[in-house]
């Protein structure tokens, strides 16, 4: 019985230590949420402003001859897969990996430490991801697509809908699609819409990469916050149950000792 009591005591101590760790990780995630959300909003605004211009250009018939509006090699797909830098965020990373694998592709460009570990390639962290890195990736993608190496180029990321809802999605960025948006009469494109479109495509792709990385990072810290909250709740319940079991075992041991003493005294 003494061994059982000692084992329970050590188990309670171990879970208590883990509880302190999950609380600390939850606090760190909470501290990052505000900054990540503000960065995400700025990324969305920047991307939307460029997207508006691209949509206007894509409505022009002249732009239909652009290589960026025509599919390349049939069946060849490239995906930018964005996951997190760390684990302990529920199913955040796993959901991105599963969605990435549902698409037949020939190349994956991973962003986030976990994605780089999963798919290989140079380490590119999601936290602290900046515009220059997104432009570097955009130039590579646009160059390959322009040469006809890919039929489509997409981004697998986690879309932030609310604090309670984040869902993995695929955003197809190339080829560009023809739109029905009509150019404003007071805007004149020089030398022509096609030339302007081809000069701004890299900026457009870079803005989409930057936007989705920042959005995914926000989802990661939110997911980790909820995962740590759940872990803290589960740890508390386990400690309560083990403490109850420990007290019962201790009381049983005390009762047995009293019984043995009384029996041995001949009373």
Task: Explain this structure.
The chain has helices at residues 2-58, 92-101, 113-119, 131-146, 193-265; strands at residues 77-82, 107-111, 152-160, 166-174. The protein has 267 residues and is α/β, with parallel strands linked by helices. Helix 1 packs antiparallel against helix 5 (193-265). The mean pLDDT is 87. The protein has one domain (33-224): ATP synthase, F1 complex, gamma subunit (Pyruvate Kinase, Chain: A, domain 1).
CATH topology: Pyruvate Kinase, Chain: A, domain 1
CATH architecture: 3-Layer(aba) Sandwich
Label the structural class: alpha/beta
Which H/E pattern describes the elements?
HEHEHHEEH
Q: Which of globular, elongated, flat, extended, rod-shaped describes the shape? A: elongated
Q: Give the class-level CATH name.
A: Alpha Beta
The largest sheet is:
4 strands, mixed
Mind telling me the CATH superfamily name?
Answer: ATP synthase, F1 complex, gamma subunit
Number of helices: 5
Runs in which pLDDT lies below 50 for 5 or more consecutive residues are none
Give the overall average pLDDT. 87
Estimate the helix proportion, in percent.
55-70%
Q: Which sequence of strands runs across the widest sheet?
A: 2-1-3-4
Number of strands: 4
- Measured on Cα atoms, how large is the radius of gyration? 28 Å
Straight-line N-to-C gap: 25 Å
Count of discrete domains: 1
Percent strand equals 5-15%
Produce a short descriptive summary.
This protein is an alpha/beta fold and 267 residues long.
């Amino acid at each position: 019985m003494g061994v059982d009591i000692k084992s329970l005591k050590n188990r309670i101590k171990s879970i208590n230590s883990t509880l302190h760790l999950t609380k600390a990780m939850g606090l760190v995630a909470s501290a990052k949420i505000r900054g990540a959300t503000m960065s995400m909003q700025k990324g969305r605004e920047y991307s939307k402003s460029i997207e508006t211009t691209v949509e206007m250009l894509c409505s022009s018939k002249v732009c239909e001859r652009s290589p960026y509006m025509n599919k390349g090699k049939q069946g060849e797909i490239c995906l930018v897969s964005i996951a997190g830098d760390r684990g302990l965020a529920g199913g955040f990373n796993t959901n991105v990996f599963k969605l990435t694998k549902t698409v037949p592709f020939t190349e994956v460009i991973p962003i986030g430490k976990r994605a780089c570990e999963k798919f290989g390639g140079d380490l590119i962290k999601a936290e602290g991801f900046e515009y220059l890195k997104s432009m570097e990736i955009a130039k590579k993608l646009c160059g390959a697509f322009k040469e006809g190496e890919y039929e489509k180029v997409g981004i697998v990321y986690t879309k932030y809908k609310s604090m309670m809802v984040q869902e993995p999605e695929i955003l197809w960025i190339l080829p560009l699609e023809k739109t029905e948006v009509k150019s404003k009469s007071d805007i004149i494109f020089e030398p022509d819409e096609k030339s302007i479109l081809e000069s701004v495509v890299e900026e457009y792709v870079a803005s989409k990469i930057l936007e989705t990385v920042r959005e995914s990072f926000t989802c990661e810290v939110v997911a980790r916050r909820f995962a740590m909250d759940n872990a803290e709740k589960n740890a508390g319940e386990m400690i309560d149950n083990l403490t109850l079991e420990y007290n019962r075992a201790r009381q049983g041991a005390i009762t047995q000792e009293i019984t043995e003493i009384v029996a041995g005294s001949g009373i």
